[in-house]
Amino acid sequence: MRRGRSALAAAAAVALSCSLLSGSPAEAEPTADSQLRAALAAAPEDLQTPFEQSDGAEWTTHPESLRYYRQLDAASDRVRVTNVGRTVQDRPLQLVAVGAPTPDSRPAAAEGSVAMFVCSVHGDEPSGREACMTLARELAFTTDAALTRFLERTTVLFINANPDGWVADTRENADDVDVNRDYMALETPEARAVTKVIRDWNPDVLNDLHEYGPREYYDTDLLHLWPRNRNVDDQIHQLAQEMSNDYSAAQVTSTGRTAGIYGQLVKDGEPFLQVAGDEQARILRNYAGLVNVVGMLSETANAPLDEAEEEDESLLNRRRVEVNHDSAVGTLQMVMENRDLLAEQTAAAAERHTEAGAEQSGVIYFAGQDDMLPTDSDEVEPEPMCGYQLTGEQFTELRSTLNLHGITTRRHEDGRLVPLAQPTRGLIPLLLDERSEYRIAEATPLQEC
Q1: Most buried residue, 1, 96, 119, 335, by CB count within 10 Å?
Q2: In what order do the strands lie in the sheet with 444-446?
Q3: How far apart are alpha carbons 9 and 57 in whole angstroms?
Q4: In order of start, what are the domains of the chain with their CATH numbers?
């Protein structure tokens, strides 16, 4: 894992606010948020996406995006485009890295500061990938001194995670699988590529950009959410809430737009029903937290929210992109203001999980979420195991999947031992225990390793 052991006393001193910021830019002096947005907007726009050229009338196609990123790579030393996999239909899965004066190598970046954006894993949600293309260009060409210094210390990654769905205009990939339900089993090449990037680049923060269908009581410009799985490290969970509420959502509301919590229906300002946003580890925002990344979900409304958008589809499309772009800018602001804290706590979380696994301390949860305790004894293990025994056959089948998750094993009797004394302690039982709904195997829990 990256970095040396951080002082646990620093963790105890972390005081994180989870309140949603609000207010209009017209009512206050310019803030750091507005200054960052203005600095990005001031970057040269010689290279524009087809979406921008059409003023929101036409979405950028996948072939056009490949050409755009090639041109961006050629035009700026700050940009490096590589392929990290191929889709079911053999399209490249591009990883775009941005840094100054050039992007750090993968090992150097993994030891430092990394911000990652997953751009429209659902192929019929185009605004996230448009926002990523715009933000990548702004970072590549900005002359702002603060942003240049930021890129010298932080590598920013963008990945378009479902090109086949993009071309087909479908939520799923070419095998009709929702990639955002595959971050445990890793059956799709798209989820394998995203997970491999997380494992190898070790991001501190991640923002997963989506769209949602608005309806009554559920109709804000942005819906956002942090990891809710109860096995996520407490400090990672709190930092993710902070990023989601006080940075990404606050960036959106600072422009006069609205934000709410993903999955919560709201009437008269009060939530009254949760319809989505649970703890499933196979969903990226939860998976990120379980592998000690400060992650979140951003969703912008994909249908008109007022009469003007009903009358002008281009206006609707521009708002969709701007909201996801502003949420991403909020994530960058989180890193700019808290880089050292994020580095310390992502490393410390890995250590805390390893220590808890070695000591067999704490509680393992198979259900429930951050605002909801499990109600069945089969959904919780108060006396954690030290590890899981895999048969030789199971290990042969699961070896590559465990490797992508960054999970280590060792020889044990006639098979392999998966010890819980490692940074992925919160994820391993969800993968291997018969009590886990989305398990990939039923391994044997051991009380002595």
Answers
A1: 119
A2: 410-412, 415-419, 387-390, 444-446
A3: 53
A4: 27-349 (3.40.630.10), 364-446 (no CATH)
